[in-house]
Design brief:
Largest sheet of chain B: 6 strands, antiparallel, barrel
Distance between the termini of chain B: 64 Å
Strand order of the largest sheet of chain A: 4-2-5-6-1-7-8-9-10
Radius of gyration of chain B: 33 Å
Radius of gyration of chain A: 19 Å
Largest sheet of chain A: 9 strands, mixed
Number of domains of chain A: 1
Oligomer: heterodimer
Organism (chain A): Caldovatus sediminis
Distance between the termini of chain A: 53 Å
CATH class of chain A: Alpha Beta
CATH architecture of the largest domain in chain B: 2-Layer Sandwich
CATH topology of the largest domain in chain B: Alpha-Beta Plaits
Protein name (chain A): Protein ImuA
Low-confidence stretches of chain B: 1-13, 358-367
Mean pLDDT of chain A: 81
Number of domains of chain B: 4
Mean pLDDT of chain B: 85
Number of helices of chain A: 6
Helix content of chain B: 25-40%
Strand content of chain B: 25-35%
CATH class of the largest domain in chain B: Alpha Beta
Shape of chain B: elongated
Helix content of chain A: 25-40%
CATH superfamily of the largest domain in chain B: Reverse transcriptase/Diguanylate cyclase domain
Order of helices and strands of chain A: HEHEEHEHEHEEEEEH
Number of strands of chain B: 20
Amino acid sequence: MSSAAPDAPLDQAAILATLRARVARLEGTGRAPQEARPIPVCDDLPLPGGGLARAAVHEVLAMAPGCGAAFCALLLARTGGTVLWIAGRRDELLAWPPGLARCGLVPANLILVRAERWPDALWAMEEALRCPAVTGAVLALTWEPNPEGDNRLDLTATRRLQLAAEAGGALGLLLRPDTAHPAPTAAVTRWRIGPLPTAQAGAGLDEPRWQLELLRVRGGTPGGPWAVTWRAAEGRLDLEREETASAARASRGASA
Amino acid sequence: MTGQPCLLPAGGPGSRRFLALHLPCLATDRIRRAEPDLPTDQPLATWAASGSRRVLVAVDQAAAAIGLRPGQALADAEAIAPDLVLRPADPDGDAQALQALALWARRYTPLAATDPPDGLLLDITGCAHLLGGEADLLRDALARLQRAGIATRGAVAGAAATSAALARARLDNPVVVSGIEAAVAAPLPLGPALRLPPAMLADLARLGLRRVRDLLDQPRAPLARRFGPELMDRLDAVTGQRRTAIRPATAPPDLTVARDLLEPIITRASIDAVLDRLLAALCARLRQTGLGARRIVLSAWRVDGVVQEVAIGTGQPTRAPAHLRRLFAERLEQLEPGLGFERMMLEARATEPMAAGTQTGLEIGGRHDAAAMAEALAQLLDRLAQRLRVHRVAPVASHWPERAVAALDPHAPVPAMPAGWATPGLPVLRRRRPEPLEAMALLPDDPPSLLRWCGMAHRLHWAEGPLRLEPEWWRARPDLRRRDYYRVELASGVRLWVCRAGPPEAARWLLHGHLP
């Protein structure tokens, strides 16, 4: 912090690096102090730092339950450690380990948490992110219509989660249904994921295609939508070439 | 004063000492405690319907003094005492109150039992010296119950039944040495001493047998033939010939530390401070004995004789005060101090051997090591499990979707995945209850071509299947039907896992999961 003192030699590169680190720390993207590498999402996506920052909270808006859960499982599996899946106690949709194992999230690394009330779920998420032995946690919001709406996940709550993640170093994911006007949150990135028609493109339903969109990113530029294919056998997300992607968008637009 | 842990002596049954407490007016005392506005000089009784009659069930001392007694008709009682206060009898509530008092009595000994319907039995072997002797312990218990508004008589003897008989039949709260049970029981009247059914008591009275001594003088065989073995059993118990076991209200703990407080405490801060000291003492004791606690109960004795308990459990044996304090911090809100707590006790109800040195700090030289990480995870799971349902999943080798996963304790090791468990094409989310769908198929065995879901009709782009699953015949579940699973893709790209269940003529379509 004090390396930019006036009596230091004018080493411009060093000063710039120091300032960048300082800005990153102030912004709280969590990248600077951690030696841990970011989580790769997809090879060719233009993400700041090359992937999702650990020690930060990211938000995933899912247009359908299946693709959102699979995307989160994929990212959590890439953290390489113990992962908590936090959901509502009475939620109709259960995270299903055989399918999650296909995403790389094996049962040995998975702990399921079911919270009776929403404050309990938030508390569990915060405790999990703060624990150094946990590498990732997802808070899955219900898909059922709920009177409280989605504004329960407000700026204050997500800011707390972000601070907890910075303290513990875990990757936090907020998986929520894509609604028309999601409330602003303190998450570092906000993604939207939706399914794309897959079957006719070739391999049946075994290699699903998704439409991925980076709606918001701190310290970077939003982008997308991109069409990606998940190759389950190789555990890899492939970015499609531009022309096929735009064709997919066109077909999607036509069918909608 | 800090109570020493109660070690059970290894002596034979002859060396045990029992304290019996008799609560003659428990039902009415309970009502007076609940309704402090009742005038104390007015007689009080409870009643219940017995067939078509309404009779008194319990009377307090004032009512007994003017001649009321249990079993009397309600109308007669009201004629005798027009100002009699009446309340309906609540036998379940009385039993609960007795159980609560047994928990309260654990302040004297870990082996405290109820003696229904109106007594407590305490095995005070080896505990009396903590309060300066058996007589002082008895006096202390009687005084505390009296202050709490519960009329009590007590007795200490070398056999449980003898002490219970003395407490009921004598008014002077005697303390009797062991070995003379028969002698002290002999002059007692049969009714309170043996607690016989009224019919049997009447028969015995007709024969002129009114005291324990009268029975002892009779030849045993004709008595047993005439009145059955139960009478002889009770007689032998009272005279100390036959040892009876007591069943403690709670199993005795492995380790105990307790603290008596000079001033009753009310505030959370002072409760925290006492808990800190108790935890430090308990953890030091655990370390000495090479144990770690799995289940710890904090008991708090309120001034008015109510005991409150807060329990925590841990997944791994632990003796780290900081961790235990955090677990308790979640739960201490449950305590209601009322007028204040006068005694707090911490018990390790379940312990396990624990190797020394596994409780390291979280960071060693700035570097997280594997053992510290495992401990941090175990502590996180303990904290979460206090409030939420936390579990790991065990893969089960079963093709039936509902059976493929079993919940596992979060601290347990996860078995390996069986072959074929995570096959391609399985959903990532499963519906807890499959949701009924309307589907149209061109032919009965064809995949569907149109789905009606969430009130909207969806054209299908693609369907793969069927994957036919038969119920597991080795598990007797006749309600389960054969299912044909299809993986379908709607025109919007949404991919679902649907199935057709039941026989072909009455098939139902169900949405069972969501594919990636």
